[in-house]
Each structure stands twice: as structure tokens, then as C-alpha cells.
What we know:
- The protein has helices spanning 109-128, 183-186, 275-287, 304-313, 326-335, 349-355, 375-382, 396-408; strands at 26-35, 39-44, 47-52, 59-67, 71-81, 136-138, 151-156, 162-165, 172-174, 198-205, 211-217, 233-237, 243-247, 251-256, 259-264, 294-298, 318-323, 342-346, 363-366, 388-393, 411-420, 429-436.
- It is of the alpha/beta class.
- Helix content is 19%, strand content 32%.
- An eight-stranded mixed sheet has the order 6-21-22-20-19-16-17-18, with helices on both faces.
- It is globular and about 65 Å long.
Amino acid sequence: xxxxxxxxxxxxxxxxxxxxxxxxxxxxxxxxxxxxxxxxxxxxxxxxxxxxxxxxxxxxxxxxxxxxxxxxxxxxxxxxxxxxxxxxxxxxxxxxxxxxxxxxxxxxxxxxxxxxxxxxxxxxxxxxxxxxxxxxxxxxxxxxxxxxxxxxxxxxxxxxxxxxxxxxxxxxxxxxxxxxxxxxxxxxxxxxxxxxxxxxxxxxxxxxxxxxxxxxxxxxxxxxxxxxxxxxxxxxxxxxxxxxxxxxxxxxxxxxxxxxxxxxxxxxxxxxxxxxxxxxxxxxxxxxxxxxxxxxxxxxxxxxxxxxxxxxxxxxxxxxxxxxxxxxxxxxxxxxxxxxxxxxxxxxxxxxxxxxxxxxxxxxxxxxxxxxxxxxxxxxxxxxxxxxxxxxxxxxxxxxxxxxxxxxxxxxxxxxxxxxxxxxxxxxxxxxxxxxxxxxx
Length: 441
């Protein structure tokens, strides 16, 4: 008898006619691989099928959720033959038709890291033509993969209930708690309160011990907000993403790399408590900064890498950072005021690289947003004759695209480390070391 999981399902239905939509119908499919985004891959009626809530090697009954001429998207509603990597999801909201925040709760943590390594390797091969095995490293502090997320964005329904959106949907799944949320985020009680007149809430807990709630109202007027269950600053999110303090201060305190950092509550900081320290160690180990060198930190945020590099190159060296967000620039300047040889510039990275075309820089780190750096930035950076470049990325597809551009412009991938900074999800953090061709250490 085939092994069946306790997932909701039902009997297999006859596939829809090719002339009618298959959406909503059920198909039986064997999964043979994984794809970027939390999908497993199989085939049905000569079409590629991308299936969530499944694992490679499994035979499942899947409900079709989307149809195109080239492929189907579906979610596994019944497991007919289970993978040995399958486990019971720790969250009751992780499953077909439910919360879309996690992708791999039904896989063991070891299997999750193996799958993510396969996805990164596949993106490198398909997009950049780079053949490389990738091992995803566990971060300290979260042995069960839960309770790590220090920033959670909740959607609020018309009744004022906070929840999380379903996968590829605007529909909201009301929840009692988020199992991957940090305990200090859960302490705010967001899902236990009613938020009338609010469209979205972001709950933030810092490694420095303070908390914040950022509310985006449904109208131009901010409604009266309930008090969170734990002390927290309360902010309003304005159009364009800016924030305005309602109660308390906007700044959060973070600790990493032996320093304390001020980060605006709505600004960027790594969401896993161990990620900032881990990435600083990886970047410094890759770039091997020396006293007196000139270093660049592009998309520098609150100045994490600029500060670490500033201490490494010393007062006889210099660090130039570039950041587009005004609040982040102010945070970085505040954080690095004790390092006068570190300068933070606000504005566009590509524009600054054009201005610095004659600059004799030695090393650079870039940590762009999920969309990546792009061809023009990579070409400008490659033209600076740098010795080493560390590229930090949370998206293996855009990383692979940019690595291909580096390759076209005289740089090669010397090393790549991947980190499981987002357990239970499909996301993975990478750090790639690029060196000038012919200059391998």
C-alpha cells in the first residue's frame, strides 16, 4: 500500500480537458527535482509542473493552482509515496492553501539545507555556466529552525485581525502566532490584538533589546492603535516607505561585529540574529583587508561592513560607502563617527562608481537588494581593477546573473559560501568572492 501523509486531499479526479482550464483539478505527479522559490518539479501530460508542499522523489496528488501554455503550478494535497526527508510541519498554518510565509516546514532541516544548496548550484550552472557544489551552512542559535525572525510583516483583514498572506495571493490567513518569529516579536501580541483601520503591521525586535511596531493605515488618518503587550516604539509608515514616530524613538539598537549600531526601525538589518556577525566574518575572511588599503562598501545600509573594514584598514587606509536610503545614510554616519577615515555617500551606486572611475581602490563589498547590482554596476566595478570583491546576496538567480557579468569583464568566482539565514523558507544568503582572472590566491 502506498504511504499517505495526513495532508488534506481526497480522491484523485480526472484531469481537465485540454480545452478547459485545469485550475482546481487534481493530478498525480512524481517529483524529480527542485526549483528556485520553494517548488518541486515534475511532469504531467508533457507539461512541467511546479509543486509546493512536496519533496524530491515523492509521488503526490496535487491541486492545480495556475496554468500557462508551458507549465502548471500546483500544491500537494496528498502524499502517496513520502520522502524519508519528510517531517511533520511544526506550524499548523504551513500547508496547502494556508500561510505562504514558509516553504519547507515539511522537510528536515538537513534536507532543507541540501535542497537550498542544490538550488544555488542549479542557478549558477543555468545562468552563469558555473559548475560548483554548494554546501549551505547552519547559523548558530536556531537548532530547530524556529524563533529566529526578528522582523515580521503582518497583513490585516477588514475585521482588524493580523495574519500572513497566502502564497501568491492577497488573501490573508489569520494566525495565532508565527513559529519562525523571534520570541521578542511574539511578545508584542500582534495576532492577539485588533487593528481596526490598519492595512499592514511590521513588528521588529532588535538584538540590542528594543522593539518597534510600524503601522500602515488604510486611509490618510492614523486610527487609535491598541497598546502592544510588551513595551515598544510605535511608528506610522508613510507613502514611499518613510516612517514617522508616534510613540517612542525610531531607532533600534543592534549589536554585531563588536559594535552597537543604530538602525531605523523601518530600515534594513539582517533578520536572523546570527546573520550579521556571520556575514562580517565571511566578508573579512574573503577580502583579507590590510592596513592602508582603500575599500568600498556599496549598498552599505547602516554601515555594518564599512565599520568592520574601517577597523581592518586602520587610520592609514580609507573606506567609502554608498547608500541610497536617506535614513540609512544618517544611521551609518552616526554609527561610524568614531572612524574618521570612513566616509558615507548618499545616492546612486552606479553614479558614484562613474565618478570614482580613476579611484585606486583595493577591495570592495556589495550587498545589493534582491534585484541584484545589475550589468552597469558590475561593469563599472570590474573596471576599477580591484584585487578582491565580496558579493553578498539573498537571491541566487540575480547573484548568478551578476557573476556572469563579472566573468565577462575579467573576474572569476574563487569561492562561494551559503548560509541558512532563513530556515523553513526557500531563501538563502550567499557570499561570493571574485578575483581578477589570473590572480588566484
